[in-house]
Amino acid sequence: MFKANIYVTLKKSIFDPQGKAAENSLVTLGFKNIRNTRIGKFIEIELDENDKNIASEITKEMCEKLLVNFNIETYRFELEEI
Amino acid sequence: MKFGVIIFPASNCAEDCYYVLSSLLNQNTKYFWHKSSEAIDTDVVILPGGFSFGDYLRCGAIARFSPVMERVIEFAGKGGLVIGICNGFQILTESGLLPGTLMKNTCLKFICSPQYLKVENNYSVFSKKYNSGDVINCPIAHNEGNYFADENTINKLEKNNQILFRYCDENGNVNDSTNPNGSVNNIAGIINIKGNVLGLMPHPERSSEKILLCDDGIKLFKSIIEFYN
């Protein structure tokens, strides 16, 4: 079995007001030397599949079909054997 | 004329649409449950506002795969009239019936407020009863209404007169200070290239009778009925 750790993030060209608000708050807390704070999504999915290549293909398909909006987002993932 | 209103789990404006169409405009109106796979047998179908599937993952992303959406896509492909209001607009972009994406408001707040809109043109079946340049009042209530599309898509929308409504002030000024949510070019509502699919974030069904202080929205529905007749 594999666990897919999927990271969905906004494309670099997309302004992330949520990241900016979090960053402003961090600066207020005294973390002055920070920049480009971006907030994304982390998705974990367990796959009942023993072949890593197939697990990878399935994960990719799930991202392309539902989990990622390619107008504004991009993604990467890792497969972890469990 | 026959209207259909789709109900997804957590749609909360379906009854408002139904009321406006059946009680105020005396139109034959029916509901479609999101699991319905029957062909759309009405002339118009409305995807109402709400929080379908709790807005989980992305607004409209899960509703887009409800069985009824296959029928809506088929219906739109044959030229049927489709209106997506608020969450309905989000579902239409997720399903690819309209370009772009509705992102989180740049102010990071849920906005529930009266809103002035500029009617860009009255060439559309959805805007015939307005005059080009009319300023109308139509409330907004959303957290993700910040319309985004890449430059190429925006240029096409502008060139093909697909932008029907823009956020403005009471004098019709369209600029950053009259943009409530960060939408590119103050876009509040667009149509597809064929002109039979409309998506808009404001709620015409909530501004369709004087008791609600404003009835500017009812002209949108009247436009369609007039076109049909």
Which terms summarize this structure?
heterodimer, A: 82 residues, alpha+beta, Mth169, Chain: A, B: 229 residues, alpha/beta, Rossmann fold, 9-stranded mixed β-sheet, two-stranded antiparallel ribbon, 5 helices, 22% helix, 24% strand
Q: How would you briefly describe this protein structure?
A:
Chain A has helices spanning 17-28, 52-67, and strands at 2-10, 41-47, 73-81. With 82 residues, chain A is α+β, with helices and mostly antiparallel strands. The longest helix of chain A has 16 residues, at 52-67.
Describe the structure.
The complex is a heterodimer of chains A (82) and B (229). With 82 residues, chain A is an alpha+beta fold. Chain A has a single domain, classed as 2-Layer Sandwich (Mth169, Chain: A). Chain A has 2 helices and 3 strands; from the N terminus they run βαβαβ. Chain A has helices spanning 17-28, 52-67; strands at 2-10, 41-47, 73-81. A 3-stranded antiparallel sheet of chain A has the order 2-1-3, covered by helices on one side. The longest helix of chain A has 16 residues, at 52-67. The mean pLDDT of chain B is 97. Chain B has a domain at 2-102 and 147-163 and 188-228: Rossmann fold. Chain B is α/β, with parallel strands linked by helices and 229 residues long. In chain B, strands 2-1-3-4-13-12-11-7-8 form a 9-stranded mixed sheet, with helices on both faces. Chain B has a two-stranded antiparallel ribbon with strand order 5-10. In chain B, strands 6-9 form a two-stranded antiparallel sheet. Chain B contains 5 helices and 13 strands. Classes of the chains: A alpha+beta (82), B alpha/beta (229). At the A-B interface, helix 1 of A face loops of B.
Multimeric organization: heterodimer
- How many strand elements of chain A? 3
Shape of chain A: elongated
Give the class-level CATH name of the domain at 2-102 and 147-163 and 188-228 in chain B. Answer: Alpha Beta
Net shape of chain B: globular
Helix content of chain B: 10-25%
Give the uncertain stretches of chain A in residue-range form.
none
Beta strand % of chain B: 15-25%
Query: Which percent range fits the helix content of chain A?
Result: 25-40%
Radius of gyration of CA atoms of chain B, rounded to a whole number: 16 Å
From N to C, what is the helix and strand string of chain B?
EHEEHEHEEEEEEHEEEH
Largest sheet of chain B: 9 strands, mixed
Number of helices of chain B: 5
CATH first level of chain A: which class? Alpha Beta
What structural category characterises the helix and strand content of chain B? alpha/beta
Total tally of structural domains of chain A: 1
